Amino acid sequence: MTQEKFWNIISKLNWNIDFDYKRISTEIMKPSILPIEERKTFYSVAQKLHSNLYDHINTFSEEDYSKYVNGSDDTLDDIISHIIGVGEKTYNKCFMNKSELQKYSPEGEIGYKENFFYSFQNLSDWIYSNKQNKTKKELKVS
User: Fold this and answer.
1) Cβ atoms 116, 18 nearer than 8 A
2) pLDDT digits (tens, 9 = 90+) for 72-96
3) CA-based torsion, 73, 7, 43, 60: positive or negative
4) Measuring CA to CA, which residue among 117, 114, 112, 85 is closest to residue 100?
5) N or C: which end of the chain has fewer CB within 10 A?
6) 66 with 57: CB under 8 angstroms?
């Protein structure tokens, strides 16, 4: 899956409208939104983008991320998840300019909603279940 396709799916989920991870967790399981054969890849791309921004914030310079985010690393995790839910433009803006993160801090002018990645629980369960079923089938063949 390309990042372009990933971000197109993210935009269809409309996190910005209501910040409702329960609604999105249902939407994301619809094949019209996320085709079955792309579920695992979508989930992997989401995790990779999250890790990339998290690592970038912590390694871009000697500065501690607390300069940009008031709160714990858990708060930072939630903010990054929110930023991914908001979309590609915001993600890239924060990646290019860490001071943008201040807007999403609990005291920031925009703030964040917890937690866009909760939307992926059904998807994660589905991936794990299919992995388990595949393993069971492989064991029966032996």
Assistant:
1) no
2) 778 888 999 999 999 999 999 999 9
3) negative
4) 112
5) C
6) no
